[in-house]
Design brief:
By secondary structure, this protein is α+β, with helices and mostly antiparallel strands. About 20% of the residues lie in helices and about 25% in strands. It has one domain: Deoxyribonuclease I, Chain A. The strands form three sheets. A six-stranded mixed β-sheet has the order 3-4-2-1-14-13. This is Exodeoxyribonuclease III.
Length: about 270
């Protein structure tokens, strides 16, 4: 861990940008308007050499990233401080070359950015991969837990944890995001002592983070919650607020996800 002190007010955010080159104007707009201290990005969909780091530096953000051509890809941005990379990728499957995991120390915190596999169609090898990936994630989170550092694991988990986290359970009943095995794997993360910050502050549900481009889902508010922020006890004790920047989903050429965020005190 770095020796940097946690600022008096700290905002951590996560945004599945669905193509960083296609959405760069929207992403820069969001960063400047909401100014998170740390922003975790998923589905950057670019190789490492194509990552637009200079554009973020112009507005004061430093970045690390783990890219992949055409799909996947994750990044961590920090306002005024360079994240120090700890790990990229998860142990357990050496043949897994997907860019889905990035871990760094920044502002005295351990921040993990994930893009969990979708798992569709299920049943099948993609769903099996999803469940194995979740088990590998749980193992790494246990290692972080054992270090007793203030930690946050943010990103697109591709899991709808509860029935009230979707506009209509029937709409996704056969989808990998809502299968009992997916929900059980997510519940095991919480059972190990991590706090679902957005779920905690929105027990009644309705805090959608994703609206499909199809069938007028955004216009009809037919969404669901799959972007999550899990906090270690050291950070959960400092949790002040959490939420979704829903309005950004309605802007021109927006991602199909809205950013999620947590606010922490020192």
């Amino acid at each position: 861990m770095s020796g940097a002190a946690i600022p008096s007010s700290l905002k951590l955010a996560s945004f599945n940008i669905n193509g960083i080159k296609a959405r760069l104007p929207r992403l820069l707009e969001w960063l400047e308007e909401t100014r998170p201290s740390v922003a975790c990005l998923q589905e950057i969909k670019t190789q490492d050499e194509g990552f637009p780091a200079a554009e973020f530096e112009k507005i004061g953000y430093h970045a690390i990233w783990h890219g992949q051509k055409g799909f996947n890809g994750v990044a961590i941005l920090a306002d005024g401080e360079k994240p120090v990379e700890v790990q990229r990728g998860l142990a357990g499957e050496p043949e897994d070359e997907h860019s889905r995991y990035l871990e760094a120390d920044v502002f005295g915190l351990r921040v993990v950015c994930i893009y969990l596999p979708n798992g569709n169609p299920q049943p099948g090898p993609k769903f099996d991969y999803k469940l194995r990936w979740m088990e590998r994630l749980r193992a790494r989170m246990a290692e972080i837990w054992a270090q007793e550092v203030p930690a946050a694991v943010l990103g697109d988990y591709n899991v709808i944890p509860r029935d009230n986290d979707i506009w209509d359970t029937r709409a996704m009943a056969s989808d990998a995001l809502m299968q009992p095995a997916s929900r059980d794997a997510y519940a095991r993360l919480l059972g190990a002592g991590w706090t679902d910050a957005i779920g905690l502050h929105h027990p009644q549900g309705g805090a959608w983070t994703f609206w499909d481009y199809q069938a007028g889902a955004w216009q009809r508010d037919h969404g669901f919650r799959i972007d999550h922020a899990l906090l270690s006890p050291e950070l959960a004790d400092r949790l002040v607020a959490s939420g979704v920047d829903k309005a950004h989903r309605g802007r021109e050429k927006a991602s199909d996800h809205a950013p999620v965020w947590v606010s922490l005190r020192a």
